[in-house]
Amino acid sequence: MYGKIHKCVKELVLSKFGQDAWNKVMIEANFDETKDFLMFKSYDDEKTFQLITAACKVSGLPLETVLEVFGQTWLKFCMDNGYEEMLRTLGGDFTSFVQNLDALHAHLSRTYTKLNYPSFRCETNNDGTLTLHYYSKRSGLYYIVLGVIPQIASVLYNQKATITVDSREEQDIENGILDDHVIFTVKLSKNDGNTTVNNKEDSSTIENNKELVCIRPTFPKQTIIQAKHFCNIFPYHLIFDENFVIKQCGSMIQILLKTKMERGSSLTSLFDLTYPRVDFTLTNLMAFINSAFLMTSVKKRNGHSLVLKGQMRWMPDISHMIFISSPCISSLQELKAMDLYISDIPLYDVTRELILLNQQRMAEMEIAKKLDETTADLTKMSKALEIEKNKTDELLHEMLPTKVATELLAGRTVDAEKFENVTILFSDIVTFTNIASACTPMDIVNLLNNLYQRFDNLTTVHNVYKVETIGDAYMVVSGVPTRTNSHAEDVANFSLDMVNEAGKVQSPATGESIQIRVGFHSGSVVAGVVGLKMPRYCLFGDTVNTSSRMESHGIPARVHASPQSAKLLIDKGYVFRDRGKNKIKGKGLMSTYILINRSGQTYEEPDDAFCKMPIAKTVDMDIEIEVLPDKTHEDKTNEDKTNEDKTNNEDKTNEDKTNELKERSKSQIQSPIIDKPVERPKSRSVIVTRPIPISRRQPPLQKQNSSTCMLS
Question: Which residue windows does the record flag with biased composition (Polar residues) (predicted)?
Fold first, then answer.
């Protein structure tokens, strides 16, 4: 069946049960919206029944009811899809309409070449009812007739039709092929005068043409045309008697069959009755006298049978039947295959025009089919493109803050802004260089992935924004780009939880829990998007530098805070230990603090010397700036010597260095008191977990108001 059937089933389910039911039908039938609903594509009957069965299951209705409702929907579907004018002009009354359905199907089969259509025959009974005969090679579909016939009477002829099933039987028509033959009785109500087609001629028209109505044609007493000329003028006709003995035959039939017709030749030995699907008997021919007939030659020409389509007329005066026909050819390819030419068809026969017209229609049909397939492919590609677009949007939201990403996706520029109150946090892994030296790269990747997944989950919980990660360094900020008064609290809560989470991850080198250093600072920054091809959200300002110093001068498994951050938190229930004055690189002497707790929750402190430090009651905001004297010539010489010694030390073999690092990793003991900042190694393995670089440029010591750019 063609995709139009699938489309009609879809329309039925949507109109009767809604979109949710249709979605369930699609899943149940395992149908693809882009592949299984092409209007001009022929599908196997099994696939169509698969869709109808799914509709029955979802709707909870029996198959018979669904088929009947389908019949009611089918007429409207055809009229909405370009066939309304054709249907309204098919017959002047209901009976004529049904009698000409076969002709309509035969015409459509020229376009829909794989159309396997049913057959209808209508008889008028003495009581005014109609006997409708239905023939189909598909068994069990006669319920569709129960739905479509009343719709035809109502919509096209403004009549009410009551249809009932009288009998049903299966007939063996050819080589075991069964034909489902169902007989219906149709009862029509009287026309109310508002039909869409005129069943009676207008009285004024009859009056104006009264003279023409009274004229009766006259006929000659005998024919004046010889049989030879008649056979040439009508080259595709046959005259046979009650016993199917051929009495006269057109010239082209003899030429095409390469058979010289002589008296006594049997029609049934030369032709099979293809349509209507009944036995080739005179009784059946008389019963279907108002139908078009198809006869197929038994003998083939170039592998093709000659198919004649025409009309039967009974001549009672001589008890003979005449079959006036034309070759049933729908394309130039069929014409060529039968070794025929257009000139072999009489000029008066419209078959000539139909062949050429149908050739054009077939070309248009092929274009329409390709267009249908292309449209389906475009729909599929559009959905795939939408999925990829969503992935891109999600990636952009991962790279940039949600507020910034939304503005960029909307096509708007994001101007740089100054944020007066933000808190920035840095963290890194203690002895990461030793761990990296003692483990394989894959172990390091797994370590960082495990650790950073835990940290990423905490960013959502505490409403902080992850700026970037490079190697073992992790940076977050609160107050950017969405301003908040709780920026310090958010970062403080995050820092305590991340220290606890880090303790749950084991080092691949020693098997012991990972320790991290954490430091944060509060202040102002300038933030904005830099770049067009690969936009990055950047933070600028001394706050970034100071936050980095808090981390680098921090303590393993501890949270190191600047006085600015401690001042914002100490009155809000957060507990700090006073670390006292510390020499901060690039800053001088600064009072710093160790965050150990927050109100309502208790965190277990590491068992180290910092546990004995006093609890801070107030915050010292004073900073003693360190002024470095100018270097003398002797100092420069000593510095050069020191650099030379460092270079010589670096000339150790890789093997010695690796062994040394392994031993240090196993036996390293943390100093209880750290008076000096942690020195960064000159080089280390860097694993970028996000494609955003970071720059930590340390300002000269003699400049107090320096700024550092952190790119995300």
Answer: 701-712
One-letter amino acid for residue 251 of the chain: S
Q: Residue 211 is which amino acid?
A: E
More confident residue, 225 or 674: 225
Sequence letter at residue 455: F
Query: DSSP E strands: which ranges in 254-303?
Result: 271-275, 293-301
How many CB atoms within 10 Å of residue 107?
A: 14
Name the strand (E) or helix (H) holding 709: strand 708-711
Task: Find out whether 569 and 597 touch, Cβ atoms under 8 Å.
Answer: no
Write out the two tokens for 179.
């034909």
All residues at 6 or more sequence positions from 428 whose CB lies less than 8 Å from its CB, including other chains = 471, 472, 473, 474, 516, 517, 551
What single string gives the DSSP state of each residue in 314-331? EETTTTEEEEEEEE---S
- pLDDT bin (cut points 50, 70, 90) of residue 21 is very high
Phi, psi of 535 (to 5 degrees): -65, 140
pLDDT for 417 beyond 80:
yes
d(CA 510, CA 518): 22
Distance CA 255, CA 271 (A): 15
Under DSSP, is residue 478 helix (H, G, I), strand (E, B) or coil? strand
Mapped onto helix, strand or coil, the DSSP state of residue 176 is: coil
Given a contact cutoff of 8 angstroms between Cβ atoms, the answer to whether 103 and 182 are in contact is: no
Pairing of strands 575-584, 536-541: unpaired
Region for residue 42 given its phi and psi (left: phi exceeds 0; alpha: psi -120 to 50; beta: otherwise): beta
Residue 116 has pLDDT above 80, yes or no: yes
Residue type, 293: F
Q: How far, in whole angstroms, is CA 379 from its chain's centroid?
A: 7
The answer to whether 560 touches 460, Cβ cutoff 8 Å, is no
Cβ(322)–Cβ(237) below 8 Å: yes
530, 527, 505: which is closest to 515 by C-alpha?
505
Give the C-alpha separation, 255 to 246, whole Å.
16
Mean pLDDT of all residues belonging to the chain: 80
**Lowest model confidence (mean pLDDT) among 164-178, 272-286, 531-545, 594-608:** 164-178
Of 48, 39, 33, which is closest to residue 3 (Cα–Cα)? 39
Residues linked to residue 170 through DSSP beta bridges, in sequence order: 180
Residue 522, pLDDT above cutoff 90: yes
Q: Are 507 and 450 within 8 A, CB to CB?
A: no
How many Å apart are CA 658 and CA 644, to the nearest integer?
22
The residue among 276, 543, 513 whose CA lies nearest residue 418 is 543
